[in-house]
Amino acid sequence: MQKPMFYLIAVFLIAFIFSNDAQGYPITFQVNISANPTILPVGSVSILTATVNRDVGPTPYFIRIYEGNTVIRSCGSGTSCSVNVTKSSSGTYYYYAKIERVDGTDTQATSNTVNVTWSGGVITTTTTTTTTVTTTTLPSGLSTTCSGRTTSQDTATISPTTNWQTISGSLSPSTDTKRYKITITSPGQYEFSLCPADGGNADFDSYICIFDSSGNFITSNDDYCTTQSKIRYSFSSTGTYYVQISGYSSRHYGSYTLAYRKTPVTTTTTTTISTTTTSTTTSTTTTISTCDYSSYSSCIFAYNFGTGSGSKSNMCGIYQYYKISTPFDKTCDIAWTVTPDSNSDYDLYVKWSTTCPSISDYDCRPFKTTGQTETCSKTSFSGTAYALVRKYSGSGSYTISVSVTNCR
Predict the structure, then answer these.
(1) Residues 6 or more apart from 116 whose CB is under 8 A from it?
(2) Residue 257 and residue 359: Cα distance in Å, rounded?
(3) What pairs with residue 67 in β-bridges?
(4) E strand map for 60-120
């Protein structure tokens, strides 16, 4: 006997429900992992990339990359997850990926295994000291918020030196955040890093913030090295500060290792010998090779070029703001120019008004790539204009200049 139409529809719906999730995606996950390159000298970086057949974001599962039995990267959204790995001595290491919950349970899929071989001698690196602390939190009374997560307790006190040191911890689900009290004993540039190249790490999408001794926000960073965070900041005075570690969102948490140090001052000595029958002269020149990372990091602290042309060199902040004004009752031709180092990509955003630009609100935004100069210009302009320079990639610095010409 022929089945009624409603019966056939019901059978189809049942089959669909049991083979798809609530968003209509296939329930079966597939994950693959690749490494590039797979053979390289010690000290070099290989990029591991795990690729999944669907976005894990709407699900309770994460893409987790393993080295042996250790998770080295965890991603809670998207269809791919990447991490940079390096070794300081020769050997072959194997890596694979899983689709599972953040606590390592309920595995849905396991990838292929890739082997990466580092060859050559042992690399001599800067000494790294691991700091062991108790897990007892120390109440400070100050409340600070980093990426939406608030705490009023310090996990430990750290005292950076010119050698890399590390301290490890973990964030529990949803709202957990960890804050460390920093003792700054001398002014200068300091680094706080979750990047593997510095000895840090985090198996989640991280976020770092810096606060002053009163709990006032100073600066923050999200994605410095892939989805890991790093801050370089120049402290102008000694005393107490705070560094706070959070996840990018409530879905991002897990284990981390924070690396920190005072940036060593690099000196270059140039010796000039002049030989005559009577004397020998030796001169020494010392150059400090640090760039300006922390200045002009918000619109209210924008560097003011005044009403004339000017430039700022050796800048390297994540976000840095500048402004220019035309002379009173004059219209002029204005041109902003950002020139990066050859290995860096800095983006220029300009607003031809008294409102600061952002990466989503601007009047001019050149689209250039690594090492290329970006320019925004306007003729017959009158008033105040703002520029934002955003670091997109690379480790070098940039020069920003503005010209004010043809005023009338």
Answers:
(1) 35, 37, 38, 39, 40, 46, 48, 85, 92, 93, 94, 95
(2) 30
(3) 70, 95
(4) 62-67, 70-75, 80-86, 91-100, 109-110, 114-119
The 3-state DSSP class for residue 213 equals: coil
Model pLDDT for residues 281-295, shown as the tens digit of each residue: 444 343 444 788 778
* Helix spans in 56-138 (H): none
pLDDT score at 208: 94
Helix/strand/coil for 46 = strand
- Peptide bond before residue 37 is cis, with ω within 30 degrees of 0: yes
Q: Is the pLDDT of residue 75 over 50?
A: yes
In the structure, what pLDDT confidence band is assigned to residue 141 with cuts at 50, 70 and 90?
A: low
CB 260 within 8 A of CB 160: yes
CB of 245 within 8 A of CB of 222?
no
Task: Name beta bridge partners: 91.
Answer: 118
Instruction: Determine the pLDDT at residue 349.
Output: 95
> pTM above 0.70?
no
DSSP H or E stretch at residue 7:
helix 5-19
- Which three-class secondary structure string do you get for 347-373? EEEEECCCCCCCCCCCCECCCCCCCCC
CA separation (Å) from 19 to 2, 15, 30, 101, 110?
A: 26, 6, 15, 20, 20
Q: Quick check: 380 and 386 in contact, CB under 8 A?
A: no
Q: Which residue has the tokens 């959070």?
A: 246
The pair of three-digit structure tokens given for residue 212, joined into one six-digit string: 């002053």
Question: 377, exposed or middle or buried, with CB in 10 Å at 0-12, 13-18, 19+?
Answer: middle
Helix (H) or strand (E) segment spanning residue 189: strand 188-193
pLDDT tens for residues 319-345? 899 999 998 889 999 999 999 999 889
Neighbours of 275 (CB within 10 A): 8
